[in-house]
Amino acid sequence: MPKLFVLLLFTMVLRGQPSVPEVKDPLGRGTPQESVFRFLEACHARDYSKATYYLDLRRMPSAARAKDGTDLARQLEDLLDDTTFEITTLSRDAEGDQADGLALNFERLASFQVDGQTVELQLERIEPRPGNHVWVVSSDSVALIPKAHKAVAETPFEKKLPQVLVTFEILDTPVWRWLALLMSGVILWIVSGFLSRALVTILRPLVDAPGFRGPVRVALVVAGSRAALEFASPATLSRTFIERALGLIIALAAAWAGAVAIDLISERWRSKLDPRMQAVSYSVLPLGRQVLKLTLILVAILSVFSAWGYNTTAILAGVGVGGIAIALAAQKTIEDLFGGISVISDRPVLVGDVCRFGDRTGTVMHIGLRSTRIRTPDRTVISVPNGQFATMTLENISGRDKIWFHPILNLRRDTTSDQMLRVLAACREILSGHPKVESGRIPVRFVGVGAYSLDIEVVAYVKTSDHDEFLAIQQDLLLQLLRAVEQAGTSLAVPLQESFEPQREPRP
Predict the structure, then answer these.
(1) From its phi and psi, is residue 319 left (phi > 0), alpha (psi between -120 and 50) or beta?
(2) Helix spans in 272-311 (H)
(3) Which of 194, 250, 200, 254 is nearest to 225 (CA)?
(4) Is 173 helix (H, G, I), strand (E, B) or coil?
(5) pTM confidence score
(6) pLDDT tens-digit profile of 49-70?
(7) Ordered structural domains, the chain, with CATH
(8) Could you tell me whether strands 354-357 and 453-462 are parallel, antiparallel, or unpaired per DSSP bridges?
């Protein structure tokens, strides 16, 4: 038993102690970018005591940390706000940028030119407590902050301005910079209006789309604003928010231009459609355009959010869950929607066609995404849900290229064989001599002896798809057939009618 205990203890020593779980830092120092962002937030809130937690002051004596640490935080704030520092260049990964050429757990913060020398500040990932890995300004870089702070100085342009415009700050940015950005925005909006109009006019021979003026104007304003930020740069956080807003605006402008292109293409497509395909031009095209436009906007917004560091997968998952809930709540509506798409895409009938659906017949008036409207011979309008209409057996009467002529002549039973032959020959001559009749090899045939008649079947096609014209030709043919029967010396049979009278009982 003791040997077993010793063996187990030896095994535990070899395997080592269990790993300490990672602890989330309450100050938000988990990634280089987040750490610097939170540092600047603390500085702009004038909470420099909190800002010192983002500096590695372990080499500094404890007595000097309270005063010197806050001074160093102020100097680093000036460095990051008053220079061309870009916080978006920092890594959003907890491990940092592994391809920056620096040692492990180090990240480049910013570089400054001081007296012809380059002063580089770095971030370091340390573990102040077990399981708590945080990014702070490295101790070596903390010692370089006073030297790097010499890079902060008034520009020659600022020296010519009234001091109140330089010293008075809004959101930690001199007021003259906000005024310069505001004036440049107004000028850019006016100038971009003329430039966009001129550009659309020049490209009119290639693409006649005045709708592109709006996206082009917005793109020009955004490009000019980015250039203005280089001249009058706000504080780092303000500049970050402005750049994010400009990125969102340019993405939406691109989506706007795509929507204009979709409208242009759909209008050209609609102009080439058959006028009878109203279902496509009035139902499918508007729906397709809206779906594509919403898709472009969604892609633009998600791409910007992804660039900002948000988890777009979670956003899409939330949209998917919401879509499922909506789909469950509107099953019949979605069924009708897909039924309408099926009817429009398969095109069993078109607007204006006469069709037979179920036991009803009518003319298709409109094919929408939810229902189909049909006018009956009684001049009433029936609205059939597309989910039901798509499952019916539809007979497109207007789709026929010729109409079947198929009367049955019932001759009297006392018709002789000679009279029958004369009737057959005359009927064949009538059909073959008519220019609008297509007859087969045996268009007229004696098919049987009925209970009260001798039956002759006439089979032919009238070469027209116009029902009114068919009725006129049918009337003419029937009159000629009746005349042929009369000329043969016979007539059509009349059904026998038998009457049954109750038998009276004899009187006693």
Answers:
(1) alpha
(2) 278-279, 285-308
(3) 250
(4) strand
(5) 0.61
(6) 999 999 998 888 887 787 888 9
(7) 32-153 (no CATH), 173-329 (no CATH), 331-399 (2.30.30.60), 403-487 (3.30.70.100)
(8) unpaired
